[in-house]
Amino acid sequence: MITLATDFGQPYPAAMKGVIARRTDATAVDIGHEFRRQAPREAAFWLRFVLPEFPPAVHCAVVDPGVGTDRQALVVRAGDHALVGPDNGLLLPPARALADGDGIEVFAVRVEEPASDTFHGRDVFAPVAADCHEVGIDRLDRLPALVRTREHEQLRLPEPAVRSDGATGEVVAVDGFGNVVTNLSGDLLDGRDAVRIDGDKYPVVPSYAHAEVGTPLVTVGSHERVELAVNQGRGEEAFGVATGETVRLRW
Amino acid sequence: MITLATDFGQPYPAAMKGVIARRTDATAVDIGHEFRRQAPREAAFWLRFVLPEFPPAVHCAVVDPGVGTDRQALVVRAGDHALVGPDNGLLLPPARALADGDGIEVFAVRVEEPASDTFHGRDVFAPVAADCHEVGIDRLDRLPALVRTREHEQLRLPEPAVRSDGATGEVVAVDGFGNVVTNLSGDLLDGRDAVRIDGDKYPVVPSYAHAEVGTPLVTVGSHERVELAVNQGRGEEAFGVATGETVRLRW
Amino acid sequence: MITLATDFGQPYPAAMKGVIARRTDATAVDIGHEFRRQAPREAAFWLRFVLPEFPPAVHCAVVDPGVGTDRQALVVRAGDHALVGPDNGLLLPPARALADGDGIEVFAVRVEEPASDTFHGRDVFAPVAADCHEVGIDRLDRLPALVRTREHEQLRLPEPAVRSDGATGEVVAVDGFGNVVTNLSGDLLDGRDAVRIDGDKYPVVPSYAHAEVGTPLVTVGSHERVELAVNQGRGEEAFGVATGETVRLRW
User: Fold this and answer.
1) Which contiguous run of DSSP H or E holds residue C129?
2) Which of B137, B228, C147, C227 is most buried, most CB within 10 Å of its CB?
3) Are C79 and C87 a contacting pair, CB within 8 Å?
4) Kindly report the CA angle at C104 between C102 and C110, in degrees rounded to 5?
5) HSE on the CB side for C134, CA within 13 Å?
6) CB contact under 8 A, C69 and B210
7) Least confident stretch, A153-157, C130-134, C228-232
8) Are residues C15 and C61 in the same domain?
9) Same domain flag for C94 and C203
10) Can you give the pTM of this predicted structure?
11) What is the CATH number of the domain that holds B68?
């Protein structure tokens, strides 16, 4: 199985699927191609959330503002999984989640002159993903194009600040419902009925429908993070926040 | 084969695909993940339209404003098909279409404490869909988590009112082209050249391109229902109607 | 393998997948269903770009403003591939690319009365695509519904005008990033550092990130055509052009 995650929209991912289908019979599975454009950190968050649900697979992830520069192409082995994508940190958070406490191995890809400078999804990453699948995830070192490396970009998702009277975190993503996902651990809400944000008090509820329709609420999302939402409405509008912005909870 | 239909956008459905791929080799097929959010009745209409095209399959459908409340999770057997989703009526119209006049069997799912209160697509419905596929659609009663029930929500799609001088129906959906799909049977247009809506007269044509480009028209859509459209334009704008609103045709 | 490309949005393509799954075990691959509506020429450009990446397959492509009129349904054999879709020129540019210099064979489909006049994707093209897959791409003439024909629509994508002091072309597509794809050959930029468009000078760069973030630029896209873009921004806004409009480069 090879999964595909990009910010490409359509039809570019189809070209990647064609390249893969020429090289392997592996099933191609779309993770999604509407990740926020040019935002590797947000995509890293979502991949860390989604990829651990999968059985062992090669995951080809391309959110790549630096395409055509000298940024490296990477393959990361993490547990029974391999990740393929640009060296901008995108792969690291999901790799650590997939490794589940074990170490990860990072390989740089020796790239022959690619057919284009603007579409490495087709010309670099999809072929490498197919090659990784064909050789087997536990035999990546047999691929002559892969060279183990310690030189690569880091990307640690932000850590929140927790104090006795509250916590300050960051919006890591807004989902399609408008639910605002923060980096604040859901445990912070244990035993609380309400929290204050910017002076206003919001109910802490187990799920959206425990608040009245249209009511802003705070809950623990399926990523086990604090989420700001509106029952059947859009949290990002009600709370007036966007990805990357700060969220301050007060108890 | 397991089909997936949600209002989740991305990347939540990918988590469901991962859960399914861990449990079964069944092919996963996306019906679509952009159903109108929190609108089970509109999704029910589309599923009734689409699912009967499929060979026997498990259909996992999640448009679920009540996630995390005490609403039940259901499995419905209908002919050679099974449907899995929340107990809010969503599954019933497609189930009746799939049963094609035969009865349907409804099972409540005994759900262990799910991993989250906000994402039962991943934590409840996808695993149950995989289990249904693995046990076989004709052996659902062997799944210990399924308990036959008669207690469940009903959802009947609206019925129109037909009189000698016209018919009054409802917009059940607007498709991506802007075509306005009503619940009025296409037979009502048999032998008619034109109909009046809100005092204006519109041609009845066999298909969009039988009207001039940009012209509002009335036709019979592929769902065998009366459809309000514009050739190469947007019917919902020209007719000024939205899902759930009333449409009155006069002969 | 059967690929699917339409301007249908959702959920209509799912009905096509169901029809196909009833008739064949072929893997269905989505090329994309958000092609610009009613714009066969733009879709033809993208299909010419994407389909040659695939191994031999049946490609079902439906962008079909003339559905329900007497326009023919076609099957085109091109090399090891077959294309299925409406006779409006859509299939020809990708067919020529797939034939790679060899001839193509065009068949008209003898269509029985279809179930609808508005959804031939489901009622005509998907079943024919499945039949083509089942009989084999090199044995299409065994399908009784296919009749070789020379009578069909042509669609040649526009040719640019090149002079000593510049070139005039056309915007053939705008991709999801806002990158403006023209029909001007990338070779025209060989050895140039900058070009003028409407009197303003823009840098010619190997890829987006070679310009400052937010800077308009000219590059050669992965389709080997001149592309107008903005690093991490939207080219169609910066250059103020849309599909079908004229672009004049001056050296």
Assistant:
1) helix C126-135
2) B228
3) no
4) 165
5) 13
6) yes
7) A153-157
8) yes
9) no
10) 0.96
11) 3.40.50.10790
Radius of gyration over alpha carbons of chain A, in Å?
20
- Please give the structure tokens belonging to residue A106: 């990072």
Q: Quick one: pLDDT band at residue B159, thresholds 50, 70, 90?
A: confident
Residues A66 and A109 in one domain: yes
Looking at the partner chain, which of B9, B17, B118 has a beta carbon nearest the beta carbon of A221?
B118
Q: What is the CATH number of the domain that holds A184?
A: 2.40.30.90
Q: Identify the domain boundary among C91, C122, C148.
A: C148
Looking at the fold, whether C103 and C215 belong to one and the same domain comes out as: no
* Cis amide linkage into residue A203, ω under 30° from 0: no
Chain C residues in contact with B1 by the CB 8 A cut-off are 21
Tell me what the mean pLDDT of segment B102-116 comes to.
92
Regarding whether A234 and A182 lie in a shared domain, the answer is yes
B178 by DSSP, 3-state: which? coil
- C2 near C24, Cβ under 8 Å? yes
Check residue A63 and give its pLDDT: 98
Question: Residue C34 in contact with residue C82, Cβ under 8 Å?
Answer: no
Considering its fold, how many domains does chain C have in total? 2
**Chain B residues in contact with A220 (beta carbon < 8 A):** 116-118
Amino acid at C9: G
The structure tokens listed for B164 are 């000698």
> With b meaning 16 or more CB within 10 Å and e meaning fewer, what string describes A173-205?
bbbbbbbbbbbbbbebbeeeeebebeeeebbbb
pLDDT tops 90 at residue C55: yes
Find the domain containing C121 and state its range.
2-148
Among B148, B176, B211, residue at a domain's last position: B148
Same domain, residue pair B8 and B130: yes
The whole-number pLDDT of residue B112 equals 85
* Chain B residues closer than 8 Å to C17 by CB: 29, 53-54
Asked if B71 and B117 sit in the same domain, the reply is: yes
Structure tokens at A22: 């020429």
Is the CB of residue C111 less than 8 Å away from at least one CB of chain B?
Answer: no
**Pairwise CA distance, residues B202 & B204, whole Å:** 7
A218 touches A192 (CB < 8 A): no
